[in-house]
Structures are given as structure tokens and as C-alpha cells.
Amino acid sequence: MRILLIEDNDDHAEIIVDLLESTYKSQATIKRAALFNPGLELLNSDAFDLCLCDLKLPDSPLENTIKTLSSTEFDTPIIVLTSINNDAIAIDLIKAGIQDFIAKDRLDSEYLFKQCQFSIERKATQNALRDKTTDYEAFCHSLSHDFSGAIRRITQCTYFLNDSLAKNHALSAEEKQWLSFIQSSASEVQQLTSDLFNYLSADATLPSQTTTSTNLNELVETICKTIDSPLTILTCDLPIIKGNPSQLQLALKNFIDNAIKYNEKPAQMSFSYKIEENNDRLVIHIDDNGIGIPEEKVPHIFIPFQRIENGLQRQGSGLGLSLVHRIFKQMGGNIHVMPSSLGGTCFEIRLPIHQLANQK
């Protein structure tokens, strides 16, 4: 058992080392760092079975320690040690995703052993789940790529066959119908594989590598230029936010495509935003004049492969809104559905205020 202890207080370090040695007997090799950053370097460069890290260190304020530990992926389970035993600190740690922490005044051999074992077992489970998820996503990416190539070839061959047959003899209505069915079915599978790829890619890249100031009004304008169907944008007043431009464009395109697809008249849309009175949330409203979403289906629309209507009535993979939900959830936001003043659906997207481009 190799344990890293990051602790600046010599007296505290001596007590913790004694407890660890009495807990693990001669099975523990303990290495100590007195500062946070050298401790992280050791954690990244060496292999440890467990790390115990003090919450307040001379080279790292409490907020920085919490932020760094919660936002960095470590293979080693980390238990945070704190001298501040109060509920507020515990809640802050849990909100930051740090589940393993111990108040120093509660330390004894039995309690420390249990917490260490829980932390090690939890981390092993998380690592196994992460590896399995990575394998599944890699498989699906590969499958999506292979399907796309195969369907593209089927589509091309169908068009060539259609042209060749039409030149040699007049196709009957039934033959034309069958060829059209093959082409439309291939197109549906192509769209499904594309949607699946986008869905799996929504959180495949670290946000810190792709986030930039993105003008949502310009994205709407860009999308509208690619659409052939009738669409009227009544208002478009959206903010500049921090986000992945490609993913945000995918999300907005899904809203626009749905407004056109689920409509019995020329589509109309409105885009607007506001900042809540307490100044901590950015609220975006996207309205349309479509057929709306049945109340009983609202709880299920963000689940993958769910369709608003029967798949025979409206084409679609059922991944669009789940992709949208995944994108905004990654940004720390959430999305709700309500009736729109335009007669269709209103999607309300709520994001942390720091997602505004002019916010720190």
C-alpha cells in the first residue's frame, strides 16, 4: 500500500502517519509533501494507492484546492482532510464532486481505515466504469463510421441503378416506389449514424480545449442560410456566450429542424434571453409555432431514441433533443419545456451566469 500525504502541519502529519501505520501495519509506505503543487506533481509522476490531502495549504487557498481536485481526473483515490468540521464545508465539497473527506478531529484508526477502504473501492469502480464507457464509445464511433461508409455506397448504387434502369426501360410506378423507399431508408440510417456520432461526441472533448466566445445570433443566421423550408424568425436576440461553437450550432439546428418538421404551417420562431433578478442565471427562450409536445411525452423527450410522434409519421433518429440536453448539461445548465406564446413549444435553457462571454 503506497500512500501520499499532502500536509503542511508537522504535528498533524505525525498523527496521521501514526494512524496509517497502526491501521496498515507494515504494509503501508507513506510519502509526504508539505505543499499542494509539489504533492500534485508526485501524484501525477508516481503511482499511489491512496492520497490524503489537507484542504488548506500554504501554496493553495481552500477554493483553489477544491477546484483543482474536483476538475482534475486522477487515477488515485483522494481523501480530503479538513480542520474545519462544519456542514457548509461538507456541502461545498460534495457539490464540487469530492465525496471522500474527513474532519481531522474525527480521526481514529478504525474510522480512517473504513474511509480509506471506501475511497479505494469507489475509485476502482469509477475507473472500471470509465474504461468500459470509453470502450463502448470507441466501439460506437467505429460502428457509426463504418455504417456511414456502407450506407453512402448503398445510396450511390441506388442512384446509379435508378438512372441505368430509367435509360433502358420505363419504370413502373411500383418500381419507382421501391427505389424511392430504398433511397429514403438509406437516408434515414445515414441520419441515424450521424446523430449517434454527434451524440457520442458531445462530451468527448474537454470543454477547456474547445470553449470560446460564441455569438448565438450569428449561429442562427448561419443555420437559416442552409435551410430550404419556409421559416420566419420573428425575433433573434441572443447573447454571446462561452461554449463550443460546433456543439452550440448542433443544438440550435435541432431546435430549428424540429420547428419545421413538427409543424402543419410555415414555421415561425423566436429567440430571446434574460438574466434572472438575482443575477446568477442566464435564461434563453426558444419558441416555435409548431404542433407542440403532448404533455404526457414531455418527461421523456430528452431520453435517447424517443420521438415526439410515431416514427412512421415523422422521420428522425430520436437523438436530437437528447443531444441538445447533453450539450447544455455539460455547460452546467438545464433545459425545460413549456407551451409557447406562438402556439407551439418553448424550450427554456438555464445556464450559469458565468457562461456569458463578458462574465468571469
Observed structural traits:
360 residues; 12 strands; Rossmann fold; alpha/beta; 5-stranded parallel sheet; 2 domains
Task: Give the SSE layout.
Blueprint: E1 2-6, H1 10-24, E2 29-33, H2 36-45, E3 50-54, H3 62-71, E4 78-82, H4 87-95, E5 101-103, H5 109-168, H6 173-201, H7 207-210, E6 212-215, H8 216-225, E7 231-236, E8 240-243, H9 245-261, E9 267-275, E10 281-288, H10 320-330, E11 334-339, E12 345-352
Parallel strand pairs: 1-2, 1-3, 3-4, 4-5, 7-9
Antiparallel strand pairs: 6-8, 9-10, 10-12, 11-12
Write structural notes for this entry.
This protein has 360 residues and is of the alpha/beta class. Strand 3, helix 3 and strand 4 (78-82) form a beta-alpha-beta unit. 49% of the residues lie in helices and 19% in strands. The protein has two domains: 2-107, 3-Layer(aba) Sandwich (Rossmann fold), CATH 3.40.50; 203-355, Histidine kinase-like ATPase, C-terminal domain (Heat Shock Protein 90, 2-Layer Sandwich), CATH 3.30.565.10. The model is unreliable at 205-209 and 310-314 (pLDDT under 50).
